[in-house]
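hi support,

uploading two proteins for the ticket. first:
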Amino acid sequence: MAARKKPAPAQVTEPRAPDAEAAPPATTAATKASTLVGIVAATVLAVLVNVLVARHYKRWDLTKAGLYTLSEPTLQTLRSLEEPVQVHLLLPSSDPLSVSLQHLLDAYRGESARVEIKATDPDRHPAEFLAVQQRYGLTAGETKDGRIVADAAVIVVRGDKPYFVSQRDLVEVDDAEDVRARPRLEQALTTAIRSVILKERPRACFTTGHGEGSLDAGGATLAPLRDLLTKDNYDVTEIPPVRQDPVAAASIADCRVLVVAGPSERVAPEDVAAMRAYFEGGGSVLVAAGPVPDGDAQRLVRLGLDDLFAAAGLRLEDDFVFETDPSHRSTQGFGETLLPLPTAHPITEGLLRAADRGMPIGLTVASSLTRTGAGVAAPAPLLQTTEKAFGMLDFFAWARSPTAPSAGDLDHKGPLWIAAATELPKKAGSSAAHGARLVAIGSASALFGPTFRNDELRGTRLFVESAISWLAARPAIVDIADKPAVAAGLKVNEDSLAAIFRYVVVFIPAAAMLLGVAVHLRRRDGERRQLERAPRAP
């Protein structure tokens, strides 16, 4: 009987999960090659974009006051750098000024690769901080030249020539009660860079002894102009009359610019002769002189400057200018405070560009200038009145019973010159950059304190600074518009305390709680959907 064959055991196949994925196909060589080419192309593109961005550096200043937008004097200074300038930032990183300075210095470096920035935090790196101080001679707050700097925040260096900027130079407090501060970061940094790159200190000489304005501080003096020139690397000195000190008066030949600022007494003939000889020898002169009543208030003082003006082809008239055009005069007075119009000249280029920004020139009490036509001088107008202005010859007759002024038959009719410039031809064989130059302003008010203190007279200040720069043949004086004052520090009162309480105790915890509830609900919703998608057991 044949044996019965047992059936083979049945093969049991494991059930395949319904969401299981098939094994990915093998990657071909072509796919690998195309991926590699894509990576290389993306890398090359990224390098090219970085090179392009580095060559065309661009920053956007989104601050409301334009805190990091560089002014034209700063741009001119940076573009004129011929060798590296190091800027050592010595403020701790916790100081609020540190961040602002870093942003501003980034803008400087974006304009010139010759600006090298080195930040040294005195709190984190005290040894390095002391080394920087000793390297540049800043020991116990005293510089090598004996100037006291108690809180040096920045040191600007070219070669071995340092310039120290204190924290007081960086911020100006406008109102001590409201604790409002006006940032002056750009003014301080650009002044420092100018000081270290200039290789000379030209002399700006002011005549004295004829009732001119004083260089001492206080009142309506020339002190603000003196300070401005000193910060721009001028040596400001006084020239005494010849009769007082013939030797000192002879030093006029060493002056880069001679300033005759508002004489109120007759200038001695020997002094006028010295001024004219200096001018005709190639010197540069700035004269600001207006009408001055004599002691009896019967006539105008004859200042005796006719020979000096004649050498420049000009004459200062014995009149008193009134502007009757309402749009070019002050709303107060009879028109003795006028707003003259600038005319095309290298001195007035900045004024003409700034005309759309509302920067008028304001002068008070002026006489007119006329061209004589004699000699080789060819003066050009810088400022002039409108056609409605006139120069009154008999001012004191009108002043005895003043009414609305009107031009008489003999008065000088507008438009009148209020300021003019002359440049004489260079002498044969002269190596000077230019010939003799003279700027005449028919009003002494242009050079005195209010011009440099009041923002309303910013146009006048720009005109004076441009005139001095043209006379000295130097870059424009650093004059950077002030930034708006901002609140410095925390001002706490009952209302602010209540607001702080609401934010800290109510709003912030409530917002955190709502955010937590939203996250919890989102997680629960995600878990529910995941359970709904999961396969159910048979």
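and the second one:
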Amino acid sequence: MIAMIHPNRPYPLYELPRIDSLKHMLEMQAQDYPDRISFRFRKGKEIADKTAAGFYRDVSALGSWLLHHGIREKHIALIEGNSYPWLVVYFAVILSGCVIVPVDKDLPREELVRLIRHSESSHVFTSKKLAAALGEEVPDVSVHLLSDLDALIAEGELILQSGDRSFLDFPQDLKKLAMIVYTSGTTGESKGVMLNQANLVADINSGCHFFNPEGPSMSVLPFHHTFGLVVSMLMYICWGVTVFINTGTRYLMADFKDAKPITVMLVPLHIQTFHRMIMENAKKTGKYKKLRAAMRLSLFLYSLGIDVRSSLMHEVREPFGGDLIYIFIGGAALDPYYEKEFRAWGIELITAFGATECSPGIAANRNFYHREGSCGRAIECCQLRIADDGEVMIRGENVMMGYYHDEAATAEALRDGWYASGDIGYLDEDGFLFLTGRKKNLIILSDGENVSPEKLEAGIERIEGIAEAMVYEENGSISVMIYPDEEHMDRQEWFEEQIRHYNDTLPPTQRIKTVVLRSTEFPKNTSKKILRHEVRKELDHV
């Protein structure tokens, strides 16, 4: 089958009704498309469906339960992995005028307690396991089990049936604090980003007009991060397409086959892992040369306007459900090398740029207007400019209210109405944003040379046998720490030789002097970013 190829050039934004609030978004879907499947998810051994009308009814019932029990104007922590109940609690809390505090369930217990205290949460929705783990650490906090949610919804249904419209008629104040999201803290302690509905609505409207998902999706990224929540979930609700909720890595490949998504949103580490998995499997089965030849043919025909990638690359595409067209990439910079590799398989990597502080979308490539290696162009709700030192600055309706209980950090981040992202980059003549690294991660050598570790890491991670790598400064020179794959563990001489070859491609000032191997994975947050400050502590300790 030959697919139509669209020219890569500017075109009008997609048309979609604008939402006025998160409540308006749910009401619109429930009223206009009541029987459309909004969510699919595993429930025991079965796959359950939930319609747009059914979802809004569950949210309304739980919201009615909250108001009926006097839970008003409260900060409510939500500590659990991705699930359908998570989404019901999220919307019920915000739409009843409370503040939601999504927290990573995998954080150490002392950090969970710290965030509950710091956010001033008086209620927590969590699992039975985490409730027991918190124990007596938060005795003054009311704990509600997500396993009891069906009972709470049933009680809320009775409240609705009695004619109580407290929740249904609850006014939505878009400028009021709605959400406190803690940053991933890759370079230090996490901060509580304050977002209101106006921030979220601006980002959803802009993002939905920028991109067309063209069909069902699968939600993989954690909901307690804004990219996983707003872009890979809330925008899909607004688009009105079905989302399959993946509840854990162990189900990921099985969910791909059951969900058959056209679009999925991931982080660069997923891309590197999938690519390595496919290439290693081709080598083990003796099909590597055949695969490479097919990829060259695929790209050659595509360049001539002939798209046969779906049929030519059927075997590669099958593990992802067979229908995958777009992978939306956020969370960190992606090596452009992978864009061509996946394009040969009939999968476009649509890169974007965001920050928790910007709700999170800032810039994105589009279905048919994208630039290799870039993060795309600014979405319509915000503006970009590059400061004199190369830092990317953002201004717009999506920019946060500030950091919770941290005026100093707020003043440092928000400067004359602009959010200082901490990312270094530049804009090309067409407004496409290219990132070159993080300001805090820059290595400044004794001769004043600024070196971006991320740029070096992108090349290093293509070397055979390297699962992960981190570049850092040590005693005035550049070093790299490598976590090898299983087949290359302890092969110090091999990696030193590979790095010598890699150095030949670099300017003298950027060449790597020392290679260090580690036997365990790097510490990472749930966005799969390496926690550089934790690695630095390990090095200092040694």
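thanks. also noticed: The first helix runs from residue 22 to 32.
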